[in-house]
Design goal:
Elements: E1 6-9, E2 11-12, E3 24-25, H1 27-39, E4 43-44, H2 47-54, E5 64-71, H3 75-87, E6 92-95, H4 120-128, E7 132-135, H5 148-166, E8 172-174, H6 182-191, E9 195-197, E10 218-219, H7 226-233, H8 247-261
Parallel strand pairs: 1-5, 1-10, 2-3, 4-5, 5-6, 6-7, 8-9
Helix pairs in contact: 5-6
Length: 271
């Protein structure tokens, strides 16, 4: 069965704040990645083509890839979208709707310190241009450490806010930091999201047998070298989903929950 690299980007910028720099690639590097994808014969498909396959529909075309972007930084509109539109490439943008400081303004704290987020006007324009808009929660918490009512508001409230702005249904979700659990996934399904993007510890390829509510992605970071990226485009160099949640993952979740319960939450890195 063919593997599908679902690439995960965050920011594409030459001047990110220090906290975001490890998860940022430069516009030049991003352009090189698009060239490598094309040169290696991959076809970039909309996320919905993969999700259709995960839900039992026809398989995606051979040698497919998917582009996804988390958080909703302003550089998607200024830098990423023009590059993708020029090449006719699809992408899914997962936005966090409740960034402190106001969506569309640089934030002074919280999950997005000192970086500009997209405005709702820009989100509407990107939607109209053909990019899929998905949800990434309201405040970017570690969902698997929250009480269930808080999880409901994060995942369902995010969906309501985006749909109110766009005027149509949105169905694609991405877990903040990649963290989920069986209970979190149940709340995601309950809210009406039909797919949810995860991040496995070492990054992984998706396949047609992957779980639509925790499908695997490959996180592209500042330290993702050209050779590693090229191996990913050849279907090499990463585990292949699906695979069962291991004891280490369950133990890590228990540790983070314990810290949250005593008022000393683990400060997750960006993802």
């Amino acid at each position: 069965m063919s593997v599908v690299p679902v690439f995960l980007y965050h920011a594409v910028s030459d001047d990110p704040p220090p906290w975001l720099a490890p998860f940022t690639v430069s516009p030049r590097t991003f352009t090189e990645h698009l060239d490598v994808i094309a040169d290696n014969g991959l076809t970039v498909i909309p996320l919905r083509r993969l999700v259709t396959a995960l839900l039992g529909g026809p398989p995606p075309p051979p040698r497919s890839a998917v582009l996804t972007f988390d958080d909703g930084y302003a550089d998607f509109a200024s830098t990423v979208a023009p590059l993708l539109l020029d090449r006719g490439l699809a992408a899914t943008l997962y936005v966090t709707t409740g960034a402190p400081g106001g969506f569309g303004r640089p934030s002074g704290g919280g999950p997005f310190p000192y970086v500009a987020a997209l405005s709702w006007r820009q989100v509407r324009e990107l939607d109209a241009a053909g990019f899929e808009i998905g949800g990434h929660s309201k405040t970017h918490p570690q969902l698997d450490t929250l009480p269930q009512e808080s999880v409901r508001e994060e995942v369902a409230g995010c969906k309501r806010e985006i749909e109110d702005v766009l005027g149509h249904q949105v169905v694609s979700f991405a877990y903040p930091h990649g963290y989920s659990s069986g209970a979190v996934r149940a709340r995601v399904r309950e809210a009406g999201w039909t797919s949810a993007a995860a991040i496995r510890a070492a990054s992984a390829f998706s396949t047609q047998r992957d779980d639509p509510l925790m499908f695997a992605r490959l996180m592209v970071r500042a330290d993702t070298g050209r050779e590693r990226f090229m191996r990913w485009t050849r279907g090499e160099g990463a585990p292949v989903a699906p695979f069962a949640e291991g004891a280490a993952t369950r133990g890590w979740r228990a540790y983070r929950r314990t810290r949250a319960a005593v008022g000393l939450p683990y400060r997750a890195l960006r993802a």
